[in-house]
Amino acid sequence: MNVAFAGMTFPAALTLPEGELAGAVLLVPGSLFSNADGDYPSWNFYPRVYAQLAEQLARRGWASLRYAKPGPGTGTEVIDAAAAVSHRRFRTRVDVARVALAMLREATHPPRVLVAGHSEGAVVAFLLAQEERAIDGVVGLAAPSTGLLSIMREQVEPAPEALANFDAAMDHVRRGEAIPAALCGIRGTELLGTMNAAAWDYIRDVDAVDPAAEAAKCAQPLLLVQGEADTSVRPHHAQAIAARREAASTTVALFDGIQHFFKRGDSFMAEGDVDPRVADAIDRWGRQWT
Questions:
Q1: What value does the mean pLDDT take over residues 124-143?
Q2: Which pTM does this prediction carry?
Q3: Domain spanning 2-147+209-286, CATH architecture
Q4: Cα–Cα distance for residue pair 134/254, rounded to 1 Å
Q5: Which of 27, 210, 272, 278 is the most buried (most CB within 10 A)?
Q6: Radius of gyration over every alpha carbon of the chain, rounded to an integer in angstroms
Q7: How is the chain split into domains, by residue range?
């Protein structure tokens, strides 16, 4: 099964429940190069986060569709190189998600549909929900409330030298400039400073979107699932998004001991199962909406 859009195909997986169908969930992947199961082969990191969440949702009656992102080892293929250039832009991620959503609807004809985005994928979900009003509910899984560069800054060593170096590099990226060699790969720029120009362009594109503002524009109910042990997107982001939602229906599910990939353990632990409280929260909350 593949999602096809703008000169590329994205491997996808549909997981179905055995019994009565409660609804369907589109799982929108986060940042970096992930395959449909939520593994990151180019980083040798295999948490299976989306596959495990899909399996847990199926045991609770939910169908789901998950899909890969462009990148090495993810199984994506370029069919038309000229058309595929559009995937260098962040907003194209919304178009891919829209195609995947249509496939999910066609395959399941569900009584209700949720869109659940993980990390950067939550921003995609917020944008998609504004355009697709037939979506019944939106789930932000470790959703950021600020632009990507601000998220990256929170991950920098909290030392004046490191932060100053990162801020200088960040300013170059935001202005559309290459980071000078003197700022590359030094204290505070170990990640940002070692990327190439195409990565900086994409980061700038993502950073230009205000996730909390986009979440506030969603008319649908919103569930924010957040792990207290998440060091990539910290817990205060869920509260910041909720505060911007004003009167709109918003639920925050904050879980102790869970990191960014919803495992109980170290920040980048791949072993073990996704904590079942995540699927439980989506199930209980999602059944309210039609």
A1: 98
A2: 0.96
A3: 3-Layer(aba) Sandwich (3.40)
A4: 27
A5: 27
A6: 18
A7: 2-147+209-286, 151-200
